[in-house]
Amino acid sequence: NVRWAFTSFHATNWHPITWLSHMLDCQLYGLDAGRHHLTNLGLHMANVVLMFLLLGRMTGEIWASAFVAALFAVHPLNAESIAWVAERKNVLSTLFWLLTMWVYIYYARRPSPIRYSCVMVCLALGLMAKPMLVTLPGVLLLFDYWPLNRQSPFFKLLFEKIPLFSLSILSSYLTILAQKSSGAMASLDMLPLSLRMANAVVSYAHYIKMLAWPIHPAFFYPISETLTLFQVALSGLTLVGITIFCFSTVKKHPYFIVGWLWYIVTLVPVIG
């Protein structure tokens, strides 16, 4: 079974750590669904605590960090990953995402080969839980700017992350193979590039709305082929407006641009 987890493209995914997690649950609990849910809940609670500690350590803002962690804990968009057992890959990959960030803080403040190796191990485990973490090296670059305030030239910081980006590229390649093997990737004949781009713009705005007002959640959001020019234009103007605001406040409030680019970058792998 362990060999199968690392060599299978089952269900259009390559995520061996997630499969091992489900296997362990079945070994311990059988098919008692409640206990599988409890594992998801335990992982989510660990993520909440990690997020609070991580943000507090990076920013020194205890109450602000507690507010963000509390919102993360109870937000309906996160509840989905606990209530849906097959979303184990979400809570598990989030755990490794936060652990990667945690270890990276120690590396950034006192670089050493051992600490960098720990960053790579945490990222690799996260990628093997869910390939969504391919954008994490880019997010670490944002953290170099704020709140870590690393003084090295940008190209040096970028060069430093080449091994991390290499892991992301390998994970992307394996994910594409897995998706192709099951026919999960739609061709441009089925979904034209113009429709994909319009859908991406509207989706970026839609997720902001869901963050503020999470109604009508679903397990699957199909691409709409009836997007109107008004929807696309309004969504585009919203994104441009937020971007201009974030850049205009970059010197006084750098966390706006870091948070906004974090949002933009991390959605890229799933934006269609």
Describe the structure.
- With 272 residues, this protein is an all-alpha fold.
- It is 72% helix and 0% strand.
Stretches where pLDDT is under 50 for at least 5 consecutive residues are: none
Cα distance, first to last residue?
32 Å
The backbone outline, from C-alpha atoms, is globular
The helix content, as a percent range, equals: over 70%
Q: What percent strand?
A: under 5%
Order of helices and strands: HHHHHHHHHHHHH
Features:
13 helices, 272 residues, mainly alpha
Describe the structure concisely.
The protein has 13 helices and no strands. With 272 residues, the chain is mainly alpha-helical.
Write the layout of secondary structure elements.
Layout: H1 2-7, H2 16-29, H3 33-59, H4 62-74, H5 76-83, H6 88-109, H7 113-127, H8 136-145, H9 154-160, H10 162-181, H11 193-212, H12 229-248, H13 254-267
